[in-house]
Structure formats: structure tokens, C-alpha cells
């Protein structure tokens, strides 16, 4: 079934010059980039985006990290793209994410409080529509 998902190249990915490599993998997989923008996240956008994590120990370091530089937001389209992009991204911890994935090939721990894992991808149809509203109004 054709779906849409919201992805972010997080500030570490943009700062390391990996936006092109990440989008290359998305396009090579066959997904369509329906919208693309580089922007500075606002605290309001991040509070909405990460509402499910409020109160967790990594919440504030995560928000501070996401405010530390520009992010690239994109809407991807394709059959089962929500699961498909999360599979391309790999598991959350970049040190142990499988080789072949974005996080596994390009990410690692840097001895910091927050896991800098390069990308975000929506985890359900409901989150995708909610997150598209947050980042693309
Ligand atoms: P995302 O939402 O960014 O696509 O990643 P995810 O589903 O794999 O991870 P999630 O559990 O939703 O956590 C959101 C982001 O918070 C940071 N995090 N750090 N213990 C930690 O240091 C920790 N746990 C989570 C990561 O940046 C993660 O992607
Ligand atoms: Mg998540």
C-alpha cells in the first residue's frame, strides 16, 4: 500500500555532510522524495515531535541536540515506506546497528549523553501524518 513517511536528517548528519549519502540510499531503494527542506527546528516543533518521550532521561539532551544545528526534513512516498525507511535506518543505537544500514554504516557513539544516530523516521501511519503536519504544516 502506498504510504508517506516523515524523515529527518538530524544535526549530526547535516554537520557531517551526509545528507546526500542518506538521500542517495533512499532514492536507490526506490522511494520518491515528495518534499525536502533544510531548516532550524524550533522548540515548539521538537516538543510536538518528541511528546512521547517527555519525562525520559534522554529527552532534554535530545531536544538540545536537535536544536544544535540545521536539520533536513523530507516526505517520502512508496509502498510500505514507513517500515522500509526504518529498515534502511537501522536500530536506534548506532554503535550496534547492523552494517548495511544508515546508522550501522555511518553512525557510532561519541561519548555523549544523547545517541546521535543521524536520522529519524516515522514509526506508524498515524505518526507519519502527525509529523508531516509538524514539519511541513
Ligand atoms: P527516531 O524516533 O529518531 O526515528 O528513532 P527511534 O524510533 O529508533 O528511537 P526512539 O526510541 O523513538 O528515540 C528517539 C531518539 O532519542 C534518542 N535516544 N537517545 N538512551 C539514549 O541515549 C537514547 N535513547 C533514545 C535517539 O536519538 C533516538 O533516535
Ligand atoms: Mg522513534
Automatic annotation (TrEMBL):
It is an enzyme of class 2 (transferase). It catalyses: a 2'-deoxyribonucleoside 5'-diphosphate + ATP = a 2'-deoxyribonucleoside 5'-triphosphate + ADP; a ribonucleoside 5'-diphosphate + ATP = a ribonucleoside 5'-triphosphate + ADP. Signal peptide: none annotated. It is found in: Cytoplasm. InterPro entries: NDK-like_dom, NDK-like_dom_sf, Nucleoside_diP_kinase, Nucleoside_diP_kinase_AS. The keyword Kinase applies. Residues 2-137 form the Nucleoside diphosphate kinase-like domain. Its cofactor is Mg(2+). Belongs to the NDK family. PANTHER family: NUCLEOSIDE DIPHOSPHATE KINASE. Homotetramer. HAMAP family: NDP_kinase. This is Nucleoside diphosphate kinase. It comes from Nesterenkonia aethiopica.
Amino acid at each position: 500500500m502506498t504510504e508517506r513517511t516523515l524523515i529527518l536528517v538530524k544535526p549530526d548528519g547535516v554537520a557531517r555532510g551526509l545528507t546526500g549519502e542518506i538521500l542517495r540510499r533512499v532514492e536507490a531503494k526506490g522511494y520518491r522524495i515528495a518534499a525536502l527542506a533544510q531548516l532550524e527546528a524550533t522548540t515548539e516543533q521538537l516538543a510536538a515531535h518528541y511528546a512521547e518521550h517527555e519525562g525520559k532521561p534522554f529527552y532534554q539532551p535530545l531536544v538540545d541536540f536537535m536544536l544544535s544545528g540545521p536539520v533536513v526534513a523530507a516526505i517520502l512516498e512508496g509502498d510500505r515506506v514507513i517500515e522500509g525507511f526504518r529498515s534502511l535506518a537501522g536500530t536506534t543505537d548506532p554503535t550496534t546497528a547492523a552494517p548495511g544500514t544508515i546508522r550501522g554504516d555511518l553512525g557510532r557513539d561519541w561519548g555523549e549523553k544523547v545517541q546521535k544516530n543521524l536520522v529519524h523516521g516515522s514509526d506508524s501511519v498515524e505518526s507519519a501524518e502527525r509529523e508531516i503536519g509538524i514539519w511541513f504544516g
